[in-house]
Amino acid sequence: MSAPVPVVEIVRSGFVEGHHYGSVVVLDPSGGVEWSVGAVDVPMLPRSCVKPLQALAMLRAGLALDGELLALACASHSGEPFHLDGVRRILDGAGLTEDALQTPPDYPLDDVAREQVLRAGGERTPIAMNCSGKHAAMLATCVTNDWPTDSYRDPDHPLQQAIRSTLEELTGNAVTTVATDGCGAPLFSTTLIGLATAFSRLAAAADGPAHRVARSIRAYPEWVSGTRRDELELLMAVPGAICKAGAESCYALALPDGRAVAFKVQDGAPRARPVLMAGVLRRMGIHEETGVDAEALDRTGQHVLLGGGQPVGQIRSLV
Predict the structure, then answer these.
(1) Can you give the pTM of this predicted structure?
(2) What are the DSSP calls for 143-179, one per residue?
(3) Most buried residue among 47, 138, 236, 313 by CB atoms closer than 10 A?
(4) In order of start, what are the domains of the chain with their CATH numbers?
């Protein structure tokens, strides 16, 4: 069986002091594997990378969201004020309040937003948790279908069964493991090839619910992450791309022509994720394509190491 390989190295004062191991797959426009390293055809947990696929399943089930609110349904948001207002708008449209959310209480991901909450004496709240947009959309989908809202996180709930079916269809993989994600919602396994395939299908869709999901991500990228996130900078640098990061250093990206990337860094180190994606895209030649901001793309992959407060090294991609 294939295994993760070194994909990122840590270089300090010219000395390679360590590596992050991982697995990467890149698909060509036809959906075939153009190249890969590591273990790309074994089950893995895609974490929040699946949120656009969950949103697609909800649209198919009658969810009436579009634009920035549909982007928010795909988000691991930063908890900035406009994100929280958007979650309230989704809930209000379904006749629900924040009390219906079953996300664990948390502070905003964004440093500035979190500091504002702390300075004001605020506490952790379910709506500030980065998955609350997805959960609000799940609740709205339940209301639309007259499904129970108190058990919407149950893997056997009709909502979660619809999500599982959509995931299996788009990835081409049968779910072999059902886990619990950090937000408490069910998490269905797939493979990196399957995840890349699903993103390819979303990005290349010309119409229908899949196109609506991709269009919302492209039009409102700050709603999918936040105003100070590397995912936003990447989407701004590569026109037409859709991408979604997940916990444990998972990442998926696709382009309108169907090319797609999916990877996982084995130790889950967040610092390795943007570095590796920038390296993969550079190997694909994306930085040379028309309309791409090559400098901005490269910036997303820069991670400088300090010594005595001064730059002495970097983390860099090996792909």
Answers:
(1) 0.97
(2) HHHT--STTTTSTTSHHHHHHHHHHHHHH------EE
(3) 138
(4) 5-62+155-317 (3.40.710)
